[in-house]
Amino acid sequence: MKYFLLVLGCQMNLSDSERVKAVIEGMGFTPTDNENEASLLGVLSCSVRQKPIDKVYNRIHVWNKKKNKQNIITFVSGCVLPDDRDKFLKLFDFVFPMSELNDFPNMLKEYGVASPLLLNQEPVTSENLAVGNFKPITKIGLKPEKPRIPSNQDIFQLWNVKPNYQSEFEAYVPIQNGCDKFCSFCAVPYTRGREVSRPSAEIIQEVKELMLQGYKSITLLGQNVNSYGLDRKEEISFAELLTKIGELGITLQNPSWVYYTSPHPRDMSRNVIEAIAKYPVLAKQIHLPLQSGDDQVLVKMNRKHNLDRYRESVAHIRELIPQATLFTDIIVGFTGETEEQFLNTVKSFDEFQFNMAYVAMYSPRPGAQSYRWENDIPQTTKKDRLQRLSDKLEEISGHYNQQLIGKTVKVLVRTKERKTGYLSGATEGKLVTRILSKDIGLIGQFVTVTITHASGLSIAGELVANTSKKTLAL
Ligand code: SF4
After folding, report:
1. pLDDT digits (tens, 9 = 90+) for 117-134
2. Distance CA 109, CA 103 (A)
3. Residue 371 C-alpha to ligand 1 middle, in angstroms?
4. pTM of this prediction?
5. Whose CA is nearest to atom 5 of ligand 1?
6. Residue nearest to atom 8 of ligand 1 (CA)
7. The CATH number of domain 2-121, selected from 3.40.50.12160, 3.40.630.10, 3.20.20.240, 1.10.760.10
8. What CATH number has the domain spanning 153-402?
């Protein structure tokens, strides 16, 4: 019996999906990419924008039509807003928060669905029904009076599930769940709850195991990673956590790159930057979401940082880790954003010289504070601002990339390029790199590349046979 899982949204969902798969496969189901052959179909939903929500409705309508001909079970979990949750309860068989993942096998059993594993252990009876032969289930799932915010204990149980890592060389390690910042455009504090830090001993153990297994890229995940530990007096701080991981890298003589995402500018202490500068295993790439380059817009966004605070962090980064690349997130067309305020964001790109920016056009989300405000910037203006900012980014990052031509860099090969004869990878600073090679055996390996071409958002080059040549950590 097979299962199909659609994972939408960010790396946090991707990381959660590794634990969801472990639980489902623990019940004896096997994965499939073909939803037509699956008996169990699920979605990990994302509430950041309307598009992923539309995808969830699209899939469940297709799946529910199939129920006339085929016995299938459907579920949804992940980031679900209270309003969507109420609607999902009418459409899916199971709706549960990620924190209740451990109960999923019991939920199935309770509602008369026997997993493949159970079937191998017990004779089939009318009480012990197989998927493929179960009672048609119309409306089941959890129907709390009010959507429930997960408790600390629930989250700790989720983290205790041993994940089925989807890659043999890149892994995500959750270190924290939820957020206390309440940015006005964001619903995360309402979907995932308040900040909860995972015990540091567990994090270090998971990172150690990944390093010993030869993982090359490890990303510490959370909505607000650098406020790690602030919710629990007995825990260490984020800078101390990085220090411990840095020391681990030295002890194990580990060559991997350890990243983290996403931090908040308000909590970006000098100690964090010092730790990254000190330890080779901590990747020299900083992702620091600015969201807007205008102080008034930042106040309206309730970001709790201003341009000066951001400037201070960037100055520390440039002083202590001059080779670090700098990435950011920006929202254009936020409610009330004037042309002048947008131009301040453009100016901030000249000032901070970002290597990459994930620019999104503002769209209101139910549940977020700004949903109640007028979405008054026309879509055409948002598109125009997105384009102008993307052009600015290409100009700045293109200039940086051009200076790399002729230099030699270390690259982690990640996949085959669409264009035949090329592989794709990334430098330590996450600069996308196209490599002239057909050798798919290099996927998951570090290679040395001489840069021959550069464009706005990527670099390209050729493999260096003699890897002892001095390489740049970029
Ligand atoms: S810091 Fe703001 S944008 Fe990030 S998860 Fe928290 S509320 Fe959302």
Report:
1. 655 554 444 344 344 444
2. 10
3. 15
4. 0.87
5. 223
6. 186
7. 3.40.50.12160
8. 3.80.30.20
